[in-house]
Write a structure and sequence with these properties.
single chain; Rossmann fold; 14 helices; 8 strands
């Protein structure tokens, strides 16, 4: 991890957050806790109300966020949405004074991210793809990793914000590096989660006690962070969203597209995508990604019936 420069008293500056869903709200919570004034916006009124409850201020739209803040976090679903929020009607760039730095946590298409950064650079706006590996709860627990792509000077200029939201920040190089690292790490993370789900169902099928087996995994070579983050949720059937199944389906679709362009087959990822499609078809896409264990259980039941 690299040294990040310090800045003036955070109370002197308002920070923007556009997109206050699971991740954006966790980011805003850290910023507010550490003394930053947060001005945010989301298209969902309930999310805006939650931001106000935390002590943030709600803007009327992205344009107002752009007018009131110089450094802005973006936490949105797709790169297309990011481009619209920045460059569209009532976008950040329609403000009388354009923002200076944009820190985009969105998992999106690397090529489109690079193209967007270049367009913004020509308009005097610095862009960092600051993707995050970890659920909203891991962000709150300061266990998530921020993976940053972009100019080193811009990275230093936003060091206080990055430190505010995570103790684990890595600058990976040029713009697009953060997006690429997020896709590669999400591929592995998702497969770890799926393997855990299948293993827990298998252990149950063999007659093992689930809680005891989960404790065993924590000290065995089969351990992964998914055991800590998703194991209890899977055993209890608690699928309150910390990272949504539909979100990972979107990420996997991007991953498979990027792999196709790179000439690589990802057979395990294709299986995972199919499982997530079944989860979404069951109406569970907005539940936590740990809900994949329910599809594994359904397949177990089907095999028993056959």
């Amino acid at each position: 991890m690299e040294h990040l420069g310090s800045r003036q008293d955070p109370h002197d500056e308002a920070i923007g957050v556009v997109g206050v869903g699971l991740v954006g709200l966790a980011l805003a919570e850290h910023l507010i806790t550490r003394g930053f004034h947060v001005v945010g916006f989301d298209i969902e009124p309930a999310r805006c109300a939650e931001l106000e409850r935390l002590g943030g201020q709600v803007a009327s739209g992205p344009s107002e966020v752009g007018a009131r803040t110089r450094r802005i976090f973006l936490s949105l679903m797709t790169t297309e949405t990011v481009s619209d929020v920045i460059e569209g009607d009532d976008g950040l760039m329609t403000a009388d004074r354009a923002p200076r730095y944009l820190l985009d946590t969105t998992t999106g298409m690397p090529d489109e991210t690079v193209a967007l950064a270049e367009r913004l650079r020509k308009r005097g706006v610095s862009y960092l793809d600051a993707t995050i590996s970890g659920s909203s709860q891991q962000i709150r627990d300061r266990q998530a990793v921020v993976m940053v792509g972009g100019d080193a000077a811009d990275y230093e200029a936003c060091g206080d914000l990055l430190r505010a939201v995570s103790d684990r920040v890595v600058h990976l190089g040029l713009t697009g590096s953060g997006s690429k690292a997020k896709l590669a790490s999400n591929l592995i993370l998702g497969l770890n989660r799926l393997a855990l789900a299948e293993g827990l169902v298998f252990a149950d099928r063999l007659g093992l006690d689930g809680a005891a087996f989960l404790d065993l995994l924590k000290i065995s070579p089969a351990y992964s962070v998914a055991v800590d983050v998703k194991g209890e949720k899977m055993l209890r059937g608690d699928f309150t969203a910390q990272s949504r199944a539909a979100q990972h389906h979107k990420d996997l679709s991007i991953i498979l597209d990027q792999a196709r362009r790179a000439g690589q087959d990802l057979p395990l990822a294709r299986v995972h995508l199919g499982i997530l499609e079944k989860v979404i078809a069951k109406g569970d896409g907005e539940l936590d990604s740990s809900v994949v264990i329910e599809e594994i259980r359904r397949r177990q039941s089907a095999s028993v019936t056959v």
